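Much of what follows relies on a compact textual record of a protein's fold. An example makes this concrete, so a full record is given next.
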Amino acid sequence: MNRNSISTLGWRGIVILSASLGLAACAGSVPPPTAQLGASAQAIQQAERAGALEHSPAEFQSAREKLAAADAAMREDERTKARRLAEQAQADAELATVRSQRATAQQAASAVRTLANPNSGVPGRAPAASAAAPLAPPAMSGTSTWDSPRTLEGTP
């Protein structure tokens, strides 16, 4: 072998080695977090439907800002940063949803309590009968159906 063929072999080896390292680097790169971005956007929409603008505005706004930052990171090809921001946006949106649902449930419970005991909050009026008081059967003429057995259809 002459000197020229050895240097050609060396260059080929370097080119092959560089190409394989380049392919390995591509295979190890972080995939784009498109699924996470979609899940975050969906969580934000669900929070909005749950009333997060009214009941949990800080968390809702934080989720929207983090999703926008994740989109910007994707445009700059910062995939790891984009994934992290998208996950945080989804967590903030889910928190906003839960807080909104809780506030809605509390409002509904308060309304039910008011309907069940309308005099409890009115000053000067006696509270309604206690829920612990036993219920008497309704006054009826004839025989009472309280003691008669019933079938599944509700007829004696």
